[in-house]
């Protein structure tokens, strides 16, 4: 059972480049989330998808787009990367009616 | 929207002592309050949670208390051990922890000295 899988684990981009972070879960969870983690800032919610077919903005959505491709997959896209988007990105999922978030291992993104 | 404040940002204790981390939330409709532990280089993992219909919950050396009137909740770790060293995050949600968003505090780095 893999849980929540994120790819890539590491990525270096130049300012203005685009990329997509992929996330997949095999636990049949309904809700999926993207957070970013910066030193001293905790975990900030970028976007979430409460169920397949829906997406909603979190605390810091600017500069990002998401796609809930199907129940298993939730991708995060940076259309034009900026140095301020240098961060560790975590995908998470949870079952409807259950509180626990299950996190992926994280993706470390550096924008030069 | 919800805002969660967490204190202190760093906490250092001697092995065997107790540690207390406090959080306040702004949205009176919030009803689910989990705590996550993140070891260095690892993913956050749930250690305990509490819902608004309960004032206190314990799990071995860990306990969480909730004061709805004051809108604050706390994590208590007794008989701390070196393996308790990690960053701890509190969070709050208004959907009972079912589907909607979960807003985190900025974290507390706990160091337990042998």
Topology:
The complex is a heterodimer of chains A (112) and B (114).
Chain A lengths: L3 E4 L2 E4 L5 E7 L5 E8 L3 E8 L6 E2 L7 E4 L5 E5 L8 E8 L7 E2 L3 E5 L1
Parallel strand pairs in A: 2-11
Antiparallel strand pairs in A: 1-3, 3-8, 4-5, 4-9, 5-6, 7-8, 9-10, 9-11
Chain B lengths: L3 E4 L2 E5 L4 E7 L6 E7 L6 E7 L4 E4 L2 E6 L4 E6 L8 E7 L10 E2 L3 E6 L1
Parallel strand pairs in B: 2-11
Antiparallel strand pairs in B: 1-3, 3-8, 4-5, 4-9, 6-7, 7-8, 9-10, 9-11
Care to give the gist of this entry?
By secondary structure, chain A is mostly beta strands.
Whole-number average pLDDT of chain B? 93
Oligomer: heterodimer
Helix content of chain B: under 10%
| DSSP, total strands of chain B | 11
Order of helices and strands of chain B: EEEEEEEEEEE
Biggest contact: A-B, 28 and 26 residues
CA distance, first residue to last residue of chain A: 36 Å
Strand content of chain A: over 45%
* Helix/strand class of chain B: mainly beta
Q: Spans of chain B with pLDDT under 50 lasting ≥5 residues?
A: none
**What percentage of residues of chain A falls in helices of 4 or more residues?**
under 10%
Succession of helices and strands of chain A:
EEEEEEEEEEE
Describe it.
The complex is a heterodimer of chains A (112) and B (114). Chain A has 112 residues and is mainly beta. Helices cover 0% and strands 51% of the residues of chain A. Chain A contains no helices and eleven strands. Chain A has strands spanning 4-7, 10-13, 19-25, 31-38, 42-49, 56-57, 65-68, 74-78, 87-94, 102-103, 107-111. In chain A, the strands form two sheets. In chain A, strands 2, 4, 5, 6, 9, 10 and 11 form a seven-stranded mixed beta sheet that branches. Chain A is globular. Chain A starts with a strand and ends with a strand. Chain B has 114 residues and is mainly β. Helices cover 0% and strands 54% of the residues of chain B. Chain B has no helices and eleven strands. Chain B has strands at residues 4-7, 10-14, 19-25, 32-38, 45-51, 56-59, 62-67, 72-77, 86-92, 103-104, 108-113. In chain B, strands 2, 4, 5, 9, 10 and 11 form a six-stranded mixed beta sheet that branches. A five-stranded antiparallel beta sheet of chain B has the order 1-3-8-7-6, with no helix packed on it. In chain B, strand 4 and strand 5 (45-51) form a beta hairpin. Chain B is globular, with a radius of gyration of 13 Å. Chain B starts with a strand and ends with a strand. Classes of the chains: A mainly beta (112), B mainly beta (114). Chain A binds chain B through residues 30-31, 33, 35, 40-45, 48, 50-51, 56, 58-59, 90, 94, 96-101, 103-106, and chain B through 1, 6, 9, 32, 34, 36, 42-46, 49, 89, 93, 96-107.
